[in-house]
Write a structure and sequence with these properties.
Order of helices and strands of chain A: HHEEEEEEEHHHEEHHEEH
Radius of gyration of chain A: 18 Å
Shape of chain A: globular
Largest sheet of chain A: 4 strands, antiparallel
Low-confidence stretches of chain A: none
Structural class of chain A: alpha+beta
Strand order of the largest sheet of chain A: 2-6-4-5
Largest interface: A-B, 43 and 43 residues
Mean pLDDT of chain A: 92
Number of strands of chain A: 11
Strand content of chain A: 15-25%
Oligomer: homodimer
Amino acid sequence: MSGATPSRTVLKLRHAGHLLAGEGEAIDGMIGMPRRFGPRRDVIARGDPPDRLHVIVEGFACRYKVTEAGRRAIVALMLPGDFCDLHVAVLGRMDHSIGTLTECQVADVSSGDVQTLIDSSPTIARTLWWSTLVDEAILRQWLANMGRLRADHHLMHLFCELHLRMEGIGLALNGSFRLPLTQEEIGDVIGVASVHVNRIVQALRADGLVTLQGGRVALPDWDRAVAFAGFDADYLHLKRPGRVAPII
Amino acid sequence: MSGATPSRTVLKLRHAGHLLAGEGEAIDGMIGMPRRFGPRRDVIARGDPPDRLHVIVEGFACRYKVTEAGRRAIVALMLPGDFCDLHVAVLGRMDHSIGTLTECQVADVSSGDVQTLIDSSPTIARTLWWSTLVDEAILRQWLANMGRLRADHHLMHLFCELHLRMEGIGLALNGSFRLPLTQEEIGDVIGVASVHVNRIVQALRADGLVTLQGGRVALPDWDRAVAFAGFDADYLHLKRPGRVAPII
DNA sequence: CGGTTAATTGAGACCACTCAACGGCTGTGG
DNA sequence: CCACAGCCGTTGAGTGGTCTCAATTAACCG
């Protein structure tokens, strides 16, 4: 590693296992100055032309769709370092919205810069490709979980996934990580009403499987959590396993 | 159009709206001789290295995952003409399986040929890219539907989607199309038990919204079906509409 | 014509929902 | 410093969609 600390984006992309020396810095070089978004703001709305690329530098954001009946479905959670829309420029308009959950720092990335970088290095191209495929694999896993797992198992599965993803970018410490979402927002992820999230969380807490307080999630017993959720991390495709020195 | 009838793959890809004259034939040229698979056979299994590309030439196939508890989740339906795995070569191993539902003809495609074709034409590259993005958009829509739509609305939504997709490859006639799946398999798609699929189908049939018999689905009243399902086709990103949008 | 698979029907149980009310915390303005 | 509003979390009660188990009929196939 060189002098500058690699961004969370690069920390994540290193898990693909392809990046050569210096390429992390090249990727960081194209990420512009972040703009601040307040909580619950749209970064891009459904119907917009997807002309810009964005990276979540800080905070939690999501992809979401709203059903006819007005129920919101969060179809992806984006953590610090995640690309929002590496891929969608080919489509004419957004079929979903991207919005912040917490306050966020969002950086614009020029799609021309991305193209240049991809053309300049097969390993970078392969790494960005890997990133979009992992996003898709997560989507498949979420679909498989939804409606087939009971809400308590489903929630623990989500926490297991987020723990690994947060750990991969240096944001998990001692089995706990920050997740300042309301129970309503968690419900929009796993597809249940907020009232039900509440009851489930209490039961899980009583079982010693998880604690949620002050916007942090703690998994005191990883093995039990994994067993309870039926969690298998293969869909995250982490070629370089887990731990990154935690930041904060 | 030239002499030879375009394959269903090309019929589908034309909806992207990018292909130039002659490029459809180029794409068809790389699709090899199909091999026959019986019903309920794995084309690729979870854990396999994703080294080959496949196209479903004839029949119905699916991506699926199996939960710890043994429940199967079908996370994508693949119709004639669909690429199975245009994208997954970057990942080390399959995180899901691809299997036939009905008897299928499956053609192998050399990934070298695909690469050559992509390098030879930006419009072909853009078109194949579009294809994988539409697959992902369908995945998002399925995730949004699952667990948020009541099973009857969900099922009608699926039928509306399949109707447009089948129509787009010339396999829908007078609002009906072939879909020789068991109620169990349909249940694995929308995440409900086969017994419940049965009751729902009967209710929908009684309402005149759909008929299922002899392995065919018929939607006698498209507008009512769309209204009932809350269906909005935008996520299929058909730049050249397959069916004219319902008037009134 | 017998065997197998799929569709259908019924009964009872459970998971998650809605509606509603209450408590706790925080920020604001008087 | 207190009153108040507002959001979030919590709790209760009753409803309903979907489940499992089981049995029966219908359709298909050799």
